[in-house]
């Protein structure tokens, strides 16, 4: 049973049926409206999305672009996004950009073409805003960025206090007597990694520990990246390692083991994110936890609120981190 | 610029525009067609999906339901699905069922309502096929199940040879001299886990090792499930452990360490799936690899082929496993 059948039986056009069902049929006569509604009732017709939305444009669909769906951080963000959308009857068209700016753009274009009501874009890249903005600076489509602040804007920021999180992690190491502290950072210009890096650097500075260029290695934020980065860093005389994220720390564990060293006896390690898996590593990983699920949840909430109230400013939201002490750090013997 | 503008300027109905753009406008006069196409050209109008598809019903969208998007197995399956769909310009509406049959059903209903062209349903549950089938047994909508065979059917099966995979894993342990071999299984009635269990059992039988009920513990197929299950199994005098999946093995590693035992010195461990992370565990995990990405890829391929050729039978596809030897197993000292 389609809208075509309803239109045919009521002797009106599809547009007429659509507008009446969407309560935009004021311009039609009461007779026409009654005729259409009677057929709808008789056929037990439930408008499908295409018919229903051709006029109202309420597709109850949002697009979401992430760099990698198999990344434990982003899959947790998606879970948070879905939690809120699901409660409201919205669905997600999910797109995997594979960390490519070009693919992000293609997906955004395709999503615009598909009349999604809004877009959540999680990206490690500076985003080509022209795809999302009109020439006059207004939004082409409501959108929220999960970019940790890399794209400057004064509303709709969802930002974890990364500087503070990193600072506390490194300070913890310093308080345990470590002065040779390496960092696994990221080779792209991620703002958040930059912020984690600044937290690291500022802490060393505050404790008058000279900063050493060779204590920083930049790699992908993956297990493999952490493994390769740690192999390189272990050439240096470091007694502690602050990792750009938990996945890097998992790779670092392996590299440290292969180098014949033990955690935390020979080297202390701290991760970042607070993934569940860190509880199960041997030893369990001390990590800077951030509320990943909540970041997704609020991205969805702010987007839907913005769709419903397009004239109101989108709020900013700042999330705090928490240093979760487990078993991968140890007081330096000589301290 | 919407289809309404085109219709208004051409002086025809929206349906007329839609049908002409979808090359279903044979019944209109050449003049009408030319008028519409001229306006379309003038406005540089690209039909949006709702207008374009109201008639053709080609939404180029498929729905996909998975039990848990943060599960490393399912996120890899999604990656495979997207790889194929992406090449063809299809997009995915992704739904997270949270392992709930009820939620699966709600999502399927919602997807049907949204005119997706097909559904991929990854589920650990016997599926309520009435949602997907008409009363006469025909399909309500093209669909592919990634259920590892739990729902019986004679076409569209995507099945890994789990029995063989499990058998080879256990045989490897037996060949290393192990006779006290525990298994971390799953508490639901997963067919594949059952098949893995049968492979385990048959191998013991073939090597005349008496099967012991208390060597089997059933838990969730998660890191936490593996941790709890292994804690329980370590009460038994086992020298080797076959895990229902790699994620369980990660949890088992932790439990074994807490029990003061070393892998593989005191206990040999084998996982199942072949996740990338198994290379980085300490020690690296011997595992039964299955082609997870390919399973997703073929699910998408078979679905699209079926959408395009609805009268042809959907093929079955069987995937082989491969025992990947790493460093978590060892010949029994006494052997």
Automatic annotation (TrEMBL), chains A, B:
Transmembrane segments: none annotated. Residues 1-56 form the HTH lacI-type domain. Keywords: DNA-binding, Repressor, Transcription, Transcription regulation. The keyword Repressor applies. Coiled coil: none annotated. It comes from the Bacteria. This is Laci family transcription regulator.
């Amino acid at each position: 049973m389609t809208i075509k059948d309803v239109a045919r039986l009521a002797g009106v056009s599809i547009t007429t049926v659509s507008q009446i069902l969407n309560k935009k049929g004021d311009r039609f006569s009461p007779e026409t409206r009654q005729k259409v509604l009677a057929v709808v009732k008789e056929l037990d017709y439930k408008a499908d999305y295409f018919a229903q939305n051709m006029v109202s444009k309420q597709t109850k669909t949002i697009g979401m672009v992430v760099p990698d769906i198999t990344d434990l951080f982003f899959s947790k963000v998606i879970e948070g996004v879905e939690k809120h959308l699901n409660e409201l009857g919205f669905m997600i068209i999910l797109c995997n950009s594979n960390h490519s700016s070009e693919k992000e753009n293609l997906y955004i274009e395709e999503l615009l073409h598909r009349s999604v009501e809004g877009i959540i874009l999680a990206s490690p890249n500076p985003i080509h805003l022209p795809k999302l903005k009109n020439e006059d600076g207004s939004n082409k489509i409501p959108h929220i960025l999960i970019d940790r602040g890399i794209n400057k804007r004064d509303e709709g920021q969802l930002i974890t206090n990364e500087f503070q999180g990193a600072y506390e992690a490194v300070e913890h190491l310093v308080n345990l007597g470590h002065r040779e502290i390496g960092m696994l950072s990221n080779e792209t210009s991620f703002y958040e990694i930059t912020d984690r890096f600044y937290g690291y650097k500022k802490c060393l500075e505050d404790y008058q520990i000279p900063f050493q260029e060779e204590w920083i290695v930049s790699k992908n934020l993956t297990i493999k990246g952490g493994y390769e980065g740690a192999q390189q860093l272990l050439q240096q005389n470091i007694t502690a390692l602050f990792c750009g994220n938990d996945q890097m720390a998992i790779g670092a564990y392996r590299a440290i083991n292969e180098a014949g060293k033990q955690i935390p006896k020979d080297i202390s390690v701290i991760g970042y994110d607070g993934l569940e898996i860190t509880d199960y590593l041997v030893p369990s990983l001390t990590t800077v936890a951030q509320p990943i699920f909540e970041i997704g949840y609020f991205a969805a909430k702010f987007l839907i609120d913005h769709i419903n109230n397009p004239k109101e400013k989108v709020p900013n939201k700042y999330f705090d981190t928490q240093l979760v002490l487990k078993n991968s750090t140890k007081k330096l013997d000589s301290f």
